[in-house]
């Protein structure tokens, strides 16, 4: 008997590697698209908060005398909201980084055989 695999076994091995590579490609595309969506949403949220802050600062001259306290409270609330957006985005980025590292392993496993 020969130690060489038969043609059908080689074909099955190649099909399995191809299927793994296709699955990794799909997961990569989904991960990148999701990361982009998360980043774009965070940017929109921060731009909205920035516009509100800018509005608070430019309208100060038209406010009543007790308004500085109200403005300070509003600015503090906006700051907290910004911190939340950044923290949520950082957590999502960390999760996507972990997913990409895992995909790197999938690509190595699906790559060309070192025995070929």
Q: Count the E strands.
A: 0
Strand content: under 5%
**Count of discrete structural domains:** 1
Number of helices: 2
Low-confidence stretches: none
Mean pLDDT: 87
Question: Which term fits the overall shape?
Answer: rod-shaped
Helix content: over 70%
Output the helix-strand order. Answer: HH
The computed structural class is: mainly alpha
CA gyration radius, whole angstroms: 26 Å
Keywords summarizing the entry:
single chain, rod-shaped, mainly alpha, 116 residues, 2 helices
Structure description:
The chain has one domain. It is built from two helices and no strands. It has helices spanning 7-58, 67-110. The mean pLDDT is 87.
Summary of the model, kept short:
The protein has 116 residues and is mainly α. The protein has helices at residues 7-58, 67-110.
List the helices and strands and how they pair.
Elements: H1 7-58, H2 67-110
Helix pairs in contact: 1-2
């Amino acid at each position: 008997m020969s130690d060489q695999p038969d043609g059908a076994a080689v074909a099955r091995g190649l099909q399995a590697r191809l299927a793994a590579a296709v699955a990794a490609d799909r997961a990569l595309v989904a991960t990148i698209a999701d990361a982009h969506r998360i980043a774009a949403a965070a940017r929109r949220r921060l731009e909205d908060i920035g516009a509100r802050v800018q509005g608070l600062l430019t309208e100060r001259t038209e406010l009543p005398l007790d308004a500085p306290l109200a403005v300070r409270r509003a600015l503090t609330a906006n700051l907290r909201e910004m911190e939340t957006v950044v923290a949520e985005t950082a957590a999502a980025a960390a999760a996507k980084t972990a997913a990409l590292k895992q995909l790197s392993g999938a690509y190595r496993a699906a790559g060309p055989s070192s025995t070929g």
